[in-house]
């Protein structure tokens, strides 16, 4: 029997039992739509996260207290809540003398209550210097940033995030308003533009920035830094600056064995690479869960095809009596199974694309950071390939069973 004739026979067999065919395809449709949706959302989330990190600047180098041990996915102890006191003012002064660095911005962080009239909320605060705004490329929607005088004179002033300003003051002007931060009266001198997430996952739109001296000495009572951000000089690469920072800190801390470093130095590219790996792993994990529904759908197809073989036993016997070979019967039933999964895959892709578009419309209107539309061609190609392979794998056993039936016994079957 020609392949064309087998194809026509398979189509006729599926059209003869339309409801059963549609119900059989349902598992494949759901599985493929889930794969498309999850891969698309994973790709969009990855682009969103990486774009936000890139927006901070490609020439930045981050110095965190505590050494990273183990795999590249390990985080420094300080990022796990362990107090590390190895970065001090002496280190920042030494780094400022390094020619490969344009600016050095130490900072401390903590959480505290911010009160204005009847509004009372807990936020993250940062103690920073005037270099911080330059290094992080932060823009203000109103007011001004700190000066070196503000830091040296312990001036009780603050620059706050855009969302925090809206929460505390509503439509009122935030500049020159006085808020209470812990037990200090602080005057707001500036409001940031919308900035989104910063390094270490800090929401910069909901934080209070204070002079480093005020936050470090009067709020936290410490003499060390939680983070130092350095900007590489344009004449040098970030990787070269990273190497120089390591050398300066080792000399400052009298470290001769690299395995005993008490700090971690990372460039922006290091952070991007790590984030890219993490989001890719999460996408693969979520997609693999969606593939479970494909397996379930494939098992459903196998069961339905086995039932179909039993119901069409007499038809199989008649075809064999008229000269059809085992290969012809195998080809016919295998084509039916592949057609079911292929059509289910196409429908699943269309439904998945619809929900991807719907998710984009909802998330792009609800997230201030913006959500990019993403429908990766790899997801469509993978969906079509997997759905067709599912038809082959789960349709092969019923097809072989049909092809091996004895024609005489099949014709006598009632």
Kindly name the structural category.
alpha+beta
N-to-C terminal Cα separation, in Å?
26 Å
Number of helices: 13
Compute the average pLDDT.
76
Largest sheet: 6 strands, mixed, barrel
Structure description:
This is Multidrug ABC transporter substrate-binding protein. This protein has helices at 3-16, 18-54, 89-96, 130-135, 148-152, 162-169, 212-220, 238-253, 268-311, 313-321, 326-366, 377-403, 407-411, and strands spanning 60-65, 101-116, 119-128, 140-143, 157-160, 178-181, 184-192, 207-211, 227-232, 263-267. It is elongated, with a radius of gyration of 32 Å. It has two domains: 3-53 and 276-411, no CATH class; 85-261, no CATH class. By secondary structure, it is of the alpha+beta class. It contains 13 helices and ten strands. The chain is 55% helix and 17% strand. It has a six-stranded mixed barrel with strand order 2-3-8-5-7-6.
Write the layout of secondary structure elements.
Elements: H1 3-16, H2 18-54, E1 60-65, H3 89-96, E2 101-116, E3 119-128, H4 130-135, E4 140-143, H5 148-152, E5 157-160, H6 162-169, E6 178-181, E7 184-192, E8 207-211, H7 212-220, E9 227-232, H8 238-253, E10 263-267, H9 268-311, H10 313-321, H11 326-366, H12 377-403, H13 407-411
Parallel strand pairs: 3-8, 5-7
Antiparallel strand pairs: 1-9, 1-10, 2-3, 2-6, 2-9, 4-7, 5-8, 6-7
Helix pairs in contact: 1-11, 2-9, 2-11, 2-12, 3-8, 9-11, 9-12, 11-12
